[in-house]
Amino acid sequence: MRIFNKIIVFFYSLIFIFIGTGLVFFAFHLAGKYDLSILIDYFVNFPNLHILVGLTGVLLVLVSLSLANISFKKFQAEKTIGYSTNGGQIIISLGAIEDFIRKLTHQLPEVKELRSEVFVTRKRIEIETRVVLWSTSNIPEITERIQSAIQVQVQTLLAGIEKPIMVNMHVVKIAPKDNDKTKKIKQQEIPFLR
């Protein structure tokens, strides 16, 4: 699938390069300076040109439709996760899982802010977590505790889904506590000179 995506990106890039080059030629009146009639005559007199143009058009339409189909399916698949029970189908919004994780970490005093994104792949459920910790935190200990808490709670929440859950932690900032700010301000004060 990745090779197909690379081919599509290359194909669309090539089309936009041709369009952009044509617009540059048009904008700077370069078509009059260079004799493009030889190139145009070559393409017009090319044998079986109509077949080549027709196949290119069909290829463009098929690639566009397949790209739209893939994008639409991926967009829908990424927003929900589901499983079947004896009573029917259960679909869970990934946004609900992200809210659950955010509320779960409000109980940890070392965490100032936490944002997470949940991605569902064929093999597993990946949770990308960006966290802001207080400066008084022991980073290895708290991140490991957050990872295990998220993993255990989400596995309990999604008991019907048998995919493994992977939690990736990114500490994006270490924020000073209010006590640390007042200490720094007091240290920076210049003593009164007499």
- Structural class call reads alpha+beta
* Proportion of residues in extended strands: 15-25%
CATH level 1 class label of the largest domain: Alpha Beta
Q: H/E series, N to C?
A: HHHHEEHEEHEH
When the domains are counted, the total is: 2
Describe the largest sheet.
3 strands, mixed
Which regions have little confidence, pLDDT < 50, spanning 5+ residues? none
Strand order of the largest sheet: 3-4-5
Shape: elongated
Could you say what the CATH architecture of the largest domain is? 2-Layer Sandwich
Average the pLDDT over all residues and give the rounded result.
78
- What is the number of E strands? 5
Distance between the termini: 77 Å
Q: What is the CATH topology assignment of the largest domain?
A: Alpha-Beta Plaits
Provide the helix percentage. 55-70%
CATH homologous superfamily caption of the largest domain:
Cation efflux protein, cytoplasmic domain
Please tally the helical runs, counting DSSP H or I stretches of 4 or more residues: 7
Radius of gyration: 29 Å
Describe the structure in your own words.
This protein has 194 residues and is of the alpha+beta class. It has seven helices and five strands; from the N terminus they run H-H-H-H-E-E-H-E-E-H-E-H. A hairpin with a 4-residue loop joins strand 3 and strand 4 (125-134). Strands 3-4-5 form a three-stranded mixed β-sheet. The model has no long low-confidence stretch (mean pLDDT 78). The radius of gyration is 29 Å and the shape is elongated. It has two domains: 2-80, no CATH class; 88-180, Cation efflux protein, cytoplasmic domain (Alpha-Beta Plaits, 2-Layer Sandwich), CATH 3.30.70.1350.
